[in-house]
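// run 5 | inverse folding | seed 20
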C-alpha cells in the first residue's frame, strides 16, 4: 500500500543538500520512515543517485542495536562513504534510540549523537536526514546544538485529503471513518473495523509504554494512564494543572502533586500524542498563562484509548479542524474576545467570549469558529458574536459539518462546510 505524502516529500526535496541536518519528527508510525526510506529514496534514484550513495539505518530495529552506540554508528556510516568528491545521503530512522537515559538526565554533558551528526555535516559531501519521535530530543535540542544547522520538518498522521485520496467514494462515509479511526497510515491496510480497533489499541500501548514509560522512567504509571484518559475525554476543553489534579483526586481517587502532573503533561506533548493550544487576548494582544486546551494528534488513537465509547461530534470536529490547521503550518491559539452586554438592570457589562481558533502564518491571520450546524437561531448568533467582536480586517470563518458550498454572509463571515475546508487547502481564501 502506497499513500503519497507529496507535501512532505516536497519539503525534503526543497531542502536537499542545504548543509543542514534535516530532522523529520512526529508521532511514531505516522509515516516518517516511509517518507524517508521509500518516497525520498525513490525520488533520489529517479534523479540518478546510485544505491551505494544512499546510506539508510533504522535504529529502532533490534538487528541494528549495535549502532545505537554513537561511536559504532559513526564508524559504520564513514565506512560507507568511499568517495570524498561525490555526494552521499545518510538517513537515520528513530535516532532517539542512540541517546541514552544518562545523557538525558545530565543536562551539562553534550549528547554524543549530536557530535556524530555535526561531524558528518563537516565532511562536506554528506547530506544528513534523521527521523525521531520526541520533540525535545530532536526539534528543540538539535536546533540548539547545531545553532542554525538543523532544519525541522514535523510530520503528522494522514490529513483527510490524503486519507480520501486513497479511499475515495462518498465523502461523508469517508469522513465518518476518518473521525472514528483517524489517520495513522497502516489503519488503511486493516481488513475490517475490528482489526482497525485492535491495531490502534496495540499502537497506543506501544507508544505509551516505549516512548513515555521507558524513556522517562515513570514512577507513577497509573497516573500517566489516568492523565491520558482525562485528556482524551476532554479534547478541546479548557484545563490547567491544578484542575487536572483535582479531577484525578475526585474521580480517580489519585493523590498527586502539581509538579508531577506538569512533568507528565510535558512528556505526553514531547511524544507528539497531544498538542496544546494557548489562550490569546485578541484585543490586549497578549497570552494568558492558563488555562490551556489539549488536542489529540490522532483521533483514532484517542478513540481506541477510550474504547470507542465517547464520540461527541462537536469535540471530534473541533479536533479534526485543529489537526488540519497545524498540519498546514499555522500557529493555532484559542481566542479570547471581550464583548459588552446589558444585564437585567440595563447596565453594560463586559463578558469574555471565545473564538475556537486564532491562526497565524506569516502575514496571514484568520479567526475560526467550529460548530456542527449554523442557522438563524440564537445559538448561531452566539457563535458569531465573538467573531463580530473582533474589529480588525482579518477574515472571520465558521466551519460546519455540512455539504453547503462556501459563501460569505452579510456580516462578512465566510461559511465553510467541513469537506470543502479539508479537501481544499485554499478554501480559507474563498
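// decoded
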Amino acid at each position: 500500500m502506497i499513500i503519497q505524502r507529496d507535501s512532505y516529500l516536497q519539503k525534503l526535496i526543497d531542502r536537499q543538500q542545504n548543509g543542514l541536518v534535516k530532522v523529520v519528527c512526529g508521532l511514531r508510525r505516522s509515516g516518517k520512515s516511509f517518507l524517508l526510506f521509500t518516497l525520498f529514496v525513490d525520488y533520489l534514484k529517479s534523479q540518478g543517485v546510485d544505491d551505494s550513495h544512499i546510506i539508510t539505518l533504522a535504529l529502532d530495529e533490534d538487528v541494528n542495536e549495535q549502532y545505537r552506540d554513537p561511536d559504532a554508528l559513526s564508524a559504520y556510516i564513514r565506512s560507507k562513504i568511499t568517495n570524498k568528491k561525490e555526494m552521499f545521503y545518510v538517513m537515520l530512522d528513530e535516532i532517539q534510540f542512540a541517546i541514552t537515559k544518562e545523557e538525558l538526565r545530565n543536562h551539562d554533558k553534550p549528547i554524543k549523537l549530536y557530535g556524530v551528526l555535526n561531524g558528518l555535516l563537516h565532511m562536506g559531501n554528506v547530506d544528513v536526514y534523521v527521523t525521531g519521535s520526541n520533540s525535545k530530543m530532536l526539534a528543540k535540542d538539535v536546533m540548539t546544538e547545531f545553532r542554525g544547522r538543523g532544519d525541522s520538518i514535523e510530520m503528522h498522521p494522514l490529513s483527510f485529503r490524503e486519507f480520501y485520496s486513497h479511499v475515495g467514494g462518498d465523502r461523508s462515509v469517508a469522513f465518518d471513518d476518518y473521525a472514528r479511526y483517524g489517520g495513522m497510515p497502516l489503519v488503511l491496510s486493516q481488513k475490517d473495523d475490528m482489526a482497525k480497533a485492535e491495531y490502534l489499541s496495540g499502537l497506543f500501548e506501544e507508544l505509551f509504554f516505549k516512548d513515555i514509560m521507558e524513556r522517562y522512567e515513570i514512577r507513577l504509571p497509573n497516573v500517566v494512564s489516568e492523565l491520558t484518559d482525562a485528556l482524551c475525554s476532554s479534547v478541546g476543553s479548557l484545563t490547567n494543572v491544578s484542575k487536572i489534579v483535582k479531577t484525578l483526586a475526585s474521580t480517580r481517587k489519585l493523590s498527586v502533586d502539581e509538579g508531577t502532573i506538569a512533568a507528565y503533561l510535558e512528556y505526553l506533548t514531547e511524544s507528539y500524542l497531544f498538542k496544546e493550544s494557548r489562550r490569546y487576548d485578541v484585543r490586549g494582544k497578549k497570552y494568558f498563562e492558563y488555562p490551556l486546551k489539549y488536542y489529540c494528534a490522532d483521533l483514532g488513537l484517542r478513540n481506541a484509548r477510550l474504547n470507542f465509547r465517547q464520540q461527541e461530534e462537536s469535540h471530534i470536529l473541533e479536533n479534526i479542524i485543529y489537526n488540519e490547521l497545524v498540519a498546514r503550518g499555522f500557529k493555532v491559539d484559542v481566542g479570547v474576545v471581550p464583548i459588552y452586554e446589558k444585564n437585567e438592570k440595563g447596565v453594560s457589562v463586559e463578558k469574555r467570549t471565545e473564538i475556537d481558533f486564532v491562526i497565524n502564518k506569516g502575514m496571514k491571520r484568520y479567526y475560526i469558529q467550529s460548530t456542527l450546524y449554523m442557522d438563524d437561531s440564537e445559538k448561531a448568533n452566539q457563535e458569531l458574536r465573538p467573531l463580530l467582536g473582533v474589529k480588525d480586517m482579518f477574515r472571520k470563518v465558521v466551519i460546519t459539518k455540512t455539504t453547503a458550498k462556501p459563501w460569505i454572509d452579510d456580516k462578512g463571515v465566510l461559511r465553510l462546510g467541513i469537506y470543502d475546508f479539508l479537501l481544499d487547502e485554499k478554501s480559507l481564501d474563498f
